[in-house]
Amino acid sequence: MTLMTHRFRPPKKEDEKKWTTVKYLVENGFTYQHIYEEIETNDKQKIKRINVVYPDNLRDAKEFVLKYKDQAIRR
């Protein structure tokens, strides 16, 4: 059993592709916690933090894990 955050919305029971994506994300430390991307503003003095949307397919999930691995939960 894995404790998921309140942000997790499970896919339909029969949607095996989305469940595979969820499993991959959780195995890599992403339990649907807040993930942020930092973007510099035009004046380059301020950094804007944007909440990232979790992917819903395996191809995008693999890119997501690589890009945000520093924000994964370590077990």
Characteristics:
single chain, alpha+beta
How would you characterize the overall build of this protein?
The structure is a single chain. The protein is α+β, with helices and mostly antiparallel strands and 75 residues long. The chain has a domain at 38-75. 29% of the residues lie in helices and 13% in strands. It contains two helices and two strands. The protein has helices at residues 16-27, 58-67, and strands at 36-40, 47-51. Strands 1-2 form a two-stranded antiparallel ribbon. A hairpin with a 6-residue loop joins strand 1 (36-40) and strand 2. Helix 1 (16-27) runs parallel beside helix 2 (58-67). The protein starts with 15 loop residues before the first helix and ends in an 8-residue tail after the last helix. The model has no long low-confidence stretch (mean pLDDT 91).
Task: Provide a concise account of the structure shown.
This protein is an alpha+beta fold and 75 residues long. The chain is built from 2 helices and 2 strands, in the order H-E-E-H.
The largest pleated sheet is described as: 2 strands, antiparallel
Spatial gap, N to C terminus:
14 Å
Q: What's the SSE pattern?
A: HEEH
Strand content: 5-15%
Task: Report helical residue fraction.
Answer: 25-40%
| Radius of gyration, in angstroms, nearest whole number | 14 Å
Oligomer kind: single chain
Structural class: alpha+beta
Low-confidence stretches: none
Secondary structure: number of strands: 2
In what order do the strands lie side by side in the largest sheet?
1-2
Shape: elongated
The whole-number mean of residue pLDDT values reads 91
Total of helices = 2
